[in-house]
Amino acid sequence: MACVKNPEESVNVNANDCSLIVEKPLKMVAGSFYIPKNNGFPNPQGEDSHFICLEKQTIGVADGVGGWHEKGIDAGEFARNLMTNTVKALEKQPKGHIALKKVLNEAFIATNDQGSSTACILTLQDDSARAINVGDSGFMLIRNGTEELYKSPVQQAYFNCPYQLGKSINCQNPSVAQMFIQKINSGDVIIAGTDGLFDNMFLEQIRDLAKEGIKEGKDPTQVAWSIAEHAYYISTDRKAHTPVSKAASMSGRPCIGGKADDITVIVAYITDDI
């Protein structure tokens, strides 16, 4: 009897009993939550931006570099337009075969605002998560059923000076971006965020909150809200031990407490429940 392969599923044949092991295609189900920093203005937009494009199974975050504020420039405008242009570039790409370098480069070329921004874009391709990152935004991967964690490394010239995309002389372009490929399985969780998240919460804290939310049956948006809210409260705690205070001490600038900042959290569940 012939075994017919469904083109949308991968099939392994056990030579001993001819039983079939069907590996279902994976998909990403995502939600987000954003808390802009209170800068004293009504209805602040903040300097972060993000998107979720489930059609292309791609997510992205950007953080406008706040130093531009001293020059009267809203770096959030650069970040927002960079993400808008990223989505436009994504629309030209085939689902499951997103050329991340090309997408980021096209978005960068199309963004002509003053200012600069970090950026992290992640897409699902077959059984892997593929990401491109510039600066200190990033993503983490929580393995299903384990305590294992992966976090994309920070790109920075020195403490609190991340690599940043921009058109001015002291900024970088997409050629400096780092690429990442991580194999994933159903039940894994991906969390992308800006430094407002990762400066205020250790990875283990984020993992534990995510696992707690999943156990309680929360959807990705609800889990993102829980994590963002927790990061916000830590950011207001002047006595908290945080990743940013640890990094500051290691750079010779001892301090304690959280860091007031815009906080963006995207939570993505990896599932084969199509």
From TrEMBL:
Q: Does the keyword Flavoprotein apply?
A: no
Stored SUPFAM superfamilies: PP2C-like
Name the reaction it catalyses.
O-phospho-L-threonyl-[protein] + H2O = L-threonyl-[protein] + phosphate; O-phospho-L-seryl-[protein] + H2O = L-seryl-[protein] + phosphate
Cofactor(s) required for function per UniProt:
Mn(2+); Mg(2+)
| Entry keyword set | Hydrolase, Magnesium, Manganese, Metal-binding, Protein phosphatase
The GO molecular function terms of this record are: metal ion binding; protein serine/threonine phosphatase activity
The main enzyme category here is: hydrolase
Any idea where the PPM-type phosphatase domain is? 32-270
The EC number on file is 3.1.3.16
Family, according to the entry, reads as follows:
Belongs to the PP2C family.
Q: Which PANTHER family match?
A: PROTEIN PHOSPHATASE, PROTEIN PHOSPHATASE 2C
Protein's name in the database:
Protein phosphatase
